[in-house]
Amino acid sequence: MTPFTVTQGDGPVILGMPHGGTWLPDDLTRRLNDNGRALADTDWHIARLYEGLLPGATVVASNVHRYAIDANRDPAGISLYPGQNTTSLCPTTDFDGRTIWAEGQEPGEDEILSRRAAFHAPYHAALQAEIDRVRARHGVALLYDCHSIRSVIPFLFPGTLPVFSIGTNDGETCAPTIEADTADTCRTAADYDTVLNGRFKGGWTTRHYGQPHAGIHAIQMELAQRAYLAAEAEPWAYDSGRAGRLRKVLGALLANLDQLARSGRLAHA
Predict the structure, then answer these.
(1) Can you give the pLDDT of all 269 residues of the chain as single tens digits?
(2) pTM above 0.85?
(3) Is 23:65 a contact under the CB 8 Å cutoff?
(4) Domain spanning 4-262: which CATH class is it, in words?
(5) Contacts of 169 (CB under 8 A, 6+ apart)
């Protein structure tokens, strides 16, 4: 299994998918406890949800499950949300704060470094290569980082998460018009709620690559899984009806971003 998959397109938009993979090396699977083997914190069916929505988009997807290493965390292990509950670069708990490894099987520092070299670094090298390629072709690159999460996780946030959680690190990672157009499209969609830079302001991917002054714009979309799964529990079944309604909004959103990136309006943002 390769750590990542790249599908190259000829457009200016790149879809990042760091958390949709479910592959783990056999030795890591054996070391997980029963809770960990459930892989509950996967961005279930994220590739299927976005498939075909934007012709010409490039897709960079991690195949490795986040329990091996989280491709959207700072490789130095620095928390993106100081003072708040979160999971680490190589998680030892799930999103509910419960341990995922059998007793004594948590990764040590040497193993974390090894996993970072084997899985985290190759994914980001591939993502950087595609950003460079797309920017060379179009003058700009627009990275849209695709995520999803269960709607209710008290360990991480109070209450129920909105369907659309948009993150731009308080406007630092993209041009204002990208943030505004994305938020407007989501807010005008019937039956869905939206928050901008709420609990999720954008992970390391968005914050690291988003350099509007250099022609690289990044934005993260965290979707509440109730909007496209039959239930937010095993077997994590994809609901075609719910997903179809959500895909219409996502398709319109991505088409708007693609048009914006092609318009030349971002060149001097």
Answers:
(1) 899 999 999 999 999 999 999 999 999 999 999 999 999 999 999 999 999 999 999 999 999 999 999 999 999 988 778 778 788 999 999 999 999 999 999 999 999 999 999 999 999 999 999 999 999 999 999 999 999 999 999 999 999 999 999 999 999 999 999 999 999 999 999 999 999 999 999 999 999 999 999 999 999 999 999 999 999 999 999 999 999 999 999 999 999 999 999 998 886 55
(2) yes
(3) yes
(4) alpha beta
(5) 197, 201, 202, 206, 207, 210
